[in-house]
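Deviation from plan, reported transparently: alpha-D-glucopyranose complex.
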Amino acid sequence: MTSLTVLSEPITARDADWWRQATVYQIYPRSFADASGDGIGDLAGIVSRIPYLRELGVDAVWLSPFYPSALADGGYDVDDYRDVDPRIGTLEEFDEMVAALHGAGIRLVVDIVPNHSSDRHEWFRAALAAPKGSPERERYIFRDGKGENGELPPADWEAAFGGLAWEPVGDGQWYLHTFAPEQPDFNWDSREVRDDFLETLRFWSDRGVDGFRVDVANLLVKDLSEPLPSAAELRAFDEAAGEHPLASRDEVHEIYAEWRELFDRYDPPRTAVAEAWVPTARQRARFASPSSLGQAFSFDLLEADFDAAQFRDIIDDNLAESRASGASSTWVFSNHDVTRHATRYGLPPRAGSTTKQGTEWVAQGGPEEQLDRELGERRARAATMLQLALPGSAYLYQGEELGLHEVADIAPDERQDPAFFRGLNATKDGLGRDGCRVPLPWASDGPSFGFGPARPHLPQPEWFGASSVEAQAGDPSSTLSLYREALALRRELQSDETLEWLEEISAGDVLAFSRPNGWVSVTNFGSAPVDLPDGEVLLSSSPLEGGRLPGAATAWIRS
Ligand code: GLC
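Because the crystal trials were delayed, the predicted structure below was used instead.
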């Protein structure tokens, strides 16, 4: 077992490749740590927990939106792209946070939300106040309604959270919102919109931000030529072929070429990672190319079952894809949009399902009474150790290092996610995304389990105490200790981005591969114990049984 010495140094080096194999920890700021005592996490709370992040051993933080927002969609409805929500902090505190993170050797990636603003953004207010055909309306997507007085929507398209994607403004015109009505879509054909985002990227880059996570990066460019297609016609377009009018259009890369040009003016160049749920690996690779954003999230493992064959194919495909694109691979199991992976892996397949488990529960919570909590946590630990041994960037979501499960028991009147309220819930029989956004438990007891002095903005369940940082920190068998040890070892062992499958062991339920420096990772996806190859066992996600690797476990060995 390794010691917990933290190797990080303050960031002074201009290492342009820092992101290629970074461990990036996602902070959902309103639910991380509340220093001000208003029930909402804040920047001062993050600063107070930098020692925790250092000890965990992450290379970078990805900060979800912290901008002024009415929180119609958890902050992804931005009022002002160049400011901080006063409930979360100030620009000055932001600068202090950057300095403190950098001082601790941790980079900062911020979320940027270019597809839509909030309906409180000054440009949208101006658009509403201005007449039809005005330059103010050109920055968004306004169309005349159908019917005698425009009382019918321009098209019957459905929004991503359910309901109609067009909203009337009272003068016969309607605006497009791909997500909630409070999130009007920008018109990316507008030069003004393009220039304003370049200004925003400069603003944060000049403040020392190291990179950007680009929200729904594949949706910005739309072909809205008349006549607009119907919802049924939309469904028939081939998005994989780049033919869909609203998603994954090739022209979007013209925007990112401009962004890249700006990023490369910095030393080191600013990085970017695309959130783009695109249908093909070829499309994803375009976002990841060095002339575009440079990296793109792969959600392939996140959507897979806990299954050796599925994992192997995904790993092979993703590594080949990054060799071709020049980016490094990305590996993700959890984020603020999906059911936590400890929970997904503990749920049975849905009735009539062809997959084993997991996939269908990604966005849907899942039935609490069918959850095998212990199995889910075991598998999640095994999957994470496998992830951390892979070449490329590992993206972790706050709380997964505590093995947290999704919080299913949140009363409807305490929920916040628009996906829960706007029909997505009704059609998909799910609970929305609040269950992975519940404020973190830092202490074993107390009214907010150490999150802050006030009642947290989402209710925490009783069982949070036993999963808290305090409860786990001193326990060598805890999930937190496992993450700390795994991340320290990863730093020590990682070198180039190669991986070699150990074919003589990788069979049936077992996946084994080696990395340079004699680093071998073996995962047993089955239930019966298996033999391990010779070598020193460095770490194991569950205790070995008589020297053998038990089911649902990963071990790292130095050969
Ligand atoms: C992205 C975000 C999600 C948000 C949506 C609209 O998918 O991750 O949280 O609701 O975009 O901005």
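The radius of gyration is 23 Å. We consider this an acceptable substitute for the interim report.
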